Every structure is written in structure tokens, then in C-alpha cells.
Amino acid sequence: MDKVRGSALPAATRSSRDVILDAARDLVASRGYDGMAISDLCTESGLPASSIYYHFGNKLGVLAALLERTFQELHAQFPAPSSFDDLEPLPRFETWFTTACASLDQRPDYLRLLLAISVGPHKDTEMVRNTVRRIRDSAHTSWVQALTPVFAPDGGEEDEAFVAQLAVLGRAMTDGLSVTNSFDGMSYSSHVDSFVSLIRGLADQRARARAVASETDGA
Asked: How far apart are CA 187 and CA 66, in angstroms?
């Protein structure tokens, strides 16, 4: 897959901040965060160290800003579950998840970067931790919104707890698929059918269990 730049604008029309972040994205992708020095950023961006320190304060500031911008770029094309409220719950979930995976296929660097930061030695730095937590909380909220009409349309503590657990599983699955995408070249979209089948199976199982419980209560 071709490398995706943070901006399609020519360098002359982009701000120095964006030029630095574009350079940081390329360096993190090729060397990892720990292999990116300020001197590398200067060489890659063509800007002096003073510009980097002015915009970001330090190397961790560059990382946090890169995460934030990548998050904004992805979610500009990432659908909200509510976009498909005109559909029945299961088709709604399937359409949302299919569209979300297509977005991730367009920007595979997003989850690769997030995963690398989440397990790296700098993950406990307050600036990075706060940015990563906000991004992950947003993703979790989307999963909950996508799954609630399927498993907890009427609320209920038990059903809502199940949705929350399944949302964690869904988020962990997409995290793991970033590794599969990177090492095996498999797209996110190639796993849509399997996960949707899992959701459908769980929904059927819980519907049958409710029916049996209802019959038992009425006996």
C-alpha cells in the first residue's frame, strides 16, 4: 500500500507544524518512535530544531500531536454508528463495521501508531497517556453505540454490561488486526464477515435464551 501523507497539499502551502508532523509520521513508520531523533526531524522536514521546539516543546509533544492529528484525520472519514440509524440493529452494525474497516484500510498507520505508543516505554508520560486514553475512550463509545441496539435495546444492567465487554473485545480485535495488516498484509475488511457472523450468532443465542426464560417464567 502506498504511504499516505497527512496532507495532500504541496509543502509550500502547508504550515511548518504540518510539515514537521508529516516528517514525524514517516520517521515513526520507518524507524519507530525511539529511533526518531530531533535531528532526524530536522533533516526530514527541512526545518530547524527551533521550529520543532516552538510548536511542540519536545519530542513527546511531537508524538502527542501526531496521534491527535491522525485521530482527527481518521475520524473525519470514520462513520458514527448513528449514521445508520435508519437500518435494523444487525444490518446497522454490519454497515457501520464494514465502513469502519474500509476507513482503517485507507489509514493503516493510525492503529499501528496507536498500538506502538500504547505499549512503548513512553506510554506512561502524562501528555501521551492522556491523548491515547481520549482516543481509546472515543473508540469504545463508538463500539457501545454500534452494539447497544443489538444487545441492549431496552437497557438493563446485565445487557449493558455485556455490550461493554463486547465493545472491549471489538476494540482489542481491531488493535490486533493492525499487526495482521502490517505483517501479513491482510486488510481489515477481509475480517468483516467473520466478526459480523460472530455478532449475529451471539444475538441469536441470547434471543433463544430469552425465549426459553420467558417460557419458563410463564409456565
From this structure: 23
